[in-house]
Amino acid sequence: MSELVIYVQNHIEYAPYIIFGLLLLAGFNIPVSEDGMLFISALIASHNPAYLPHLFIAVFMGAYLSDLICYGLGRIVGPKLLHIRFFSSIATQERIDKIHDYYQRYGVITLIFGRFVPFGVRNGLFLTAGLGQMNLIKFALSDLLACTISTTTFFTLYYNYGDKVIGAIQKTNAVIFVAALGIAAYFYFRRNKTRQTHSEHNSVD
């Protein structure tokens, strides 16, 4: 990442385009870290205040359009993605059903919460939203709100505190990730228990 920061700083006039382009690639599940792009753009903006609006717009629009690309992949290509090894580990049928259930239950809260969860969970959310045929307008508006909250929060923190806040954010993300796993496990076992109880009830009848 340090090499990228140095390169972008040496070509500051192209920085917004570079960051925007890299984030678009992330929408195709190419391993480009949104968190990394937020940190780089905020760090460069702190040293070059004149480019602050350009860099924020670039990272915000890049992140948002990346989400729409990932959603579009799932919606347009559909279940065929599940037969491609590159995507199958991200979007299993079980995960699609589970996240679809979260969308039905909690709506926009799922996207807001998911955007703060690291380790590739974000793209899994967007991909499965498309695979689950979530309404495009609903997804676009919900993700716009979620993206606004997350990018504004992290960009502001990185811009004002830089390296000082990285450790705290990593720890917070780890806590959120563990909490997300706990919630997922709870609903998984609860759903299985309900099915088992229903099955036993039917067998008795």
Report on the structure:
About 30% of the residues are buried. About 80% of the residues lie in helices and about 0% in strands. About 0% of the residues have low confidence. It has one domain. The longest helix is centred in the C-terminal third of the chain and has 42 residues. It starts with a helix and ends with a helix. It is mainly α and about 200 residues long. It has 10 helices and no strands. It is elongated and about 60 Å long.
Ordered list of secondary-structure elements with their pairings:
Blueprint: H1 2-10, H2 15-26, H3 34-47, H4 52-77, H5 85-88, H6 93-106, H7 108-115, H8 121-131, H9 136-161, H10 163-204
Helix pairs in contact: 2-4, 3-4, 3-9, 4-8, 4-9, 6-7, 6-8, 7-9
Family: Belongs to the DedA family.
Protein name: DedA family protein
Subcellular location: Cell membrane
DSSP summary, beta strand count: 0
Structural class: mainly alpha
Q: Determine the oligomeric state from the structure.
A: single chain
**Overall outline:** elongated
What's the domain count?
A: 1
The biggest beta sheet reads: none
Radius of gyration: 19 Å
Q: Which range does the strand content fall in?
A: under 5%
Mean pLDDT: 76
The sequence of SSEs as H and E is HHHHHHHHHH
Based on the model shown, name its key terms.
81% helix, 0% strand
In short:
This is DedA family protein. This protein has 205 residues and is mostly helical.
